[in-house]
Amino acid sequence: MITNEKILIAGPASQVAFPIARALAARNEVYGLGRFSDPASRARIETFGVQCLQADLAHDSLTSIPDDFTYGLNFAVTRSGVFDEDLAGNAEGAARLMFHCRKVRAWLHCSSSAVYHYAGRQPLRETDPLGDSRRSFMPTYSICKIAAEVMARFAARQWQIPTTIARLNVPYGNNGGLPAFHLDWMLAGTPIALHPDKPTLRNLIHEDDYVSHIPKLLAIAAVPATTINWGGSDAVSVEDWCAYMAQLTGVPAQFTYTENAIGSIVLDLTRMHEHLGRTTVDWHDGIRRMIAARHPELRLR
Length: 301
Known about the structure:
Blueprint: E1 6-10, H1 17-25, E2 29-34, H2 39-46, E3 51-54, E4 71-74, H3 83-100, E5 106-112, H4 141-159, E6 163-169, E7 171-173, E8 176-177, H5 178-188, E9 192-194, E10 201-202, E11 205-206, H6 207-219, E12 226-231, E13 236-237, H7 238-249, E14 255-257, H8 270-275, H9 283-294
Parallel strand pairs: 1-2, 1-4, 2-3, 4-5, 5-6, 6-12, 7-11, 9-14
Antiparallel strand pairs: 7-8, 10-13
Helix pairs in contact: 3-4, 5-7, 7-9
């Protein structure tokens, strides 16, 4: 438990960071840094006591941002599809923010399993090859995530900032996530695109689990930076969770298979289990809770 600290969260209104910001704001002085182009998303997090700081990491000066935080968490992401813009926002922005906040006790940089070279259902270790695995789906995403990791590693060494780089796969919960998108497509009668090399496995991690991991992720921050896979302890297939949602709702799941879809991403979680422990929310329970929260009009079987 983290209490009575001054914490900066970049990207606090995002699907992943919102539950974290809400939990930390209950016992800490939390500041949220973002573009806040949607006033409603800003108002939503201010409701929980998060103090909002407006800045674009790609372009804006950070001189008006406080620099006396005890912890920093970077969940910000820029996905314009334009390389110059996305490299500036994700990679340069990560380093500029770390330099500005270099007095922190520890820094958490949220990365993604999208940094790995595609390996099918082979569990991926932190030392495995990196690659551009998202080009057909999000053309700048993988490269920008890799570049942002490099800048976080550089900043940790250059300014002696204890840092953890966590490669996340795949977050979900009442605030959304990949299964929520799939349910929306099911309700709309839209086929879900999957890779023909099936089943398509993921390490679903519920927001209750990843929120509980934040103190431990900060505790293992180091110089050089600690890199760690971050996901649900048990891999589950997209086919299985869609079938379970169909069972609960009575709404069928339709699939279409294409080489352009993202294939399996399975993480070797040996390091995570050593430092953070196993996740505790069973994916069946998490999915049921997600549907109940996001679609109260549906009567679950």
